[in-house]
Amino acid sequence: MPSDIALSQAAGTPPADRAERSALKAKLRRAERMKQLKAFGLIAPLLAFLLITFVVPIGDMMLRSVHDTELSEVWPRTTAAIDQWQDRTALPPEAVYAALAEDMRQSREERTIATAARRLNYDANGARTFVMGTARRLPETAESWKQTLIDIDPAWGEIETFGAIDRASGPFTSFFLLSAVDMEKTASGEIVSAPEQESVYLTIFTRTFVISTMVTLICLIMGFPVAYLLANLPPKQANLLMIMVLLPFWTSLLVRTAAWVVLLQEQGLINDTLRFVGVIDEPIRMIYNRIGVYIAMVHILLPFMILPLYSVMKGIKPVYLKAATSLGAPPVTAFVRVYLPQTLPGISAGALLVFIISIGYYITPALVGGAADQMISYFIAFYTSDTVNWGMASALGAVLLVATLILYTVYNRLVGADNIRMG
Question: Per CATH, which fold does 201-422 belong to?
Answer without folding.
Answer: MetI-like fold (1.10.3720)
